[in-house]
């Protein structure tokens, strides 16, 4: 099939070449009738408005054509809907749209609307990927699966429009979406403790465990625990069946199978959303690492990378040097907050030609920096010291989250 051919050569093709090909490839699914870009109203200030994710879910039409390019739109379109923030004065040139996607990802990876929950490595503070989330296995109602399908549709638009969705997900998720086989080492990426236990059972001699002392040392039954904390029988009456030495390989295989497939219902819903917008073989172009970076961006960024994307207007060299020193001193979290402040995103895209503009502000040293998220622009007052610049910029990234709040009515 076409998809399998793409899959076989994907490691031989540069990412930029793939994206150029994809842009032409998707024109095959351009609708004959032009679809107006939908405009939705989001209430971020009302106490009873509810999560932004659910507001967007209810407001947007779900037909796949509304997530694709349309014939009457130019090829530089960067969003599939525009946002009107109720009682805020923002004009959506891209900034509010990106802010909404960022907010959606924050909500569905939190207790606000937990479609995704912290992985065991995060809960137990062990191993790698302690910042990662996995699909919530309890989110399996028809409504939940419709919401996950919608998440997949949004991810598909991010692939084409580079609308960054900062989803912190381990390899097992991205492999499922591109059709790569999941392997036991993937468990280590989200459940270190389970992986460690299984490795111990496969290497008993290293731990001084023999057939003779096995049952005195190992007190396992044929059960596992889901990510949401539910006890799962790995075989009939597993909670009552004590693990024996000769059954250890069977036990390991059963746990691995459960862990690698625990989220399949949720991941299949996301995948169906992806493939409703563009067919599966379009995604076969990418490795799972590429898909992650395209959809979710780069979690942290090198200051030098941002410098290469930067144009300056009227900013003196000393002020500019102080600015870059401050950015370099920021923690990864603060750099993400900075990007959100100036661009409505928390990550740099994997690719893209967007330029960051730093321009001189006419306001006094007592003023805060101002951003124009639609245009990736920062207005920087002429501060008299690096310390003042850092103080003002830090306050802005932590506290100035509303867009164009001078115009709130």
Description:
With 409 residues, the chain is α/β, with parallel strands linked by helices. It is built from 18 helices and ten strands. The longest helix is centred in the middle third of the chain and has 20 residues, at 142-161. The chain is globular, with a radius of gyration of 24 Å.
Order of helices and strands: HHEHEHEHEHHHHHEEHHHHHEHHEEEH
Described by strand count, sense and barrel closure, the largest sheet is: 4 strands, mixed
Coarse shape: globular
SSE-based structural type: alpha/beta
Helix content: 40-55%
What integer is the average pLDDT?
Answer: 85
Query: If you compute it from the alpha carbons, what radius of gyration comes out, rounded to the nearest whole angstrom?
Result: 24 Å
Features:
18 helices; two-stranded parallel ribbon; four-stranded mixed sheet; disordered C terminus; alpha/beta; 44% helix; 409 residues
Summarize the topology.
Layout: H1 2-9, H2 15-25, E1 38-42, H3 52-59, E2 81-85, H4 95-108, E3 116-118, H5 120-124, E4 133-135, H6 142-161, H7 171-178, H8 185-188, H9 192-202, H10 214-217, E5 223-225, E6 231-233, H11 248-261, H12 264-277, H13 280-283, H14 288-296, H15 303-308, E7 310-313, H16 317-329, H17 332-343, E8 356-360, E9 370-372, E10 377-380, H18 386-399
Parallel strand pairs: 1-2, 7-8, 8-10
Antiparallel strand pairs: 3-4, 5-6, 9-10
Helix pairs in contact: 6-12, 6-14, 7-14, 17-18
Brief digest:
By secondary structure, this protein is of the alpha/beta class.
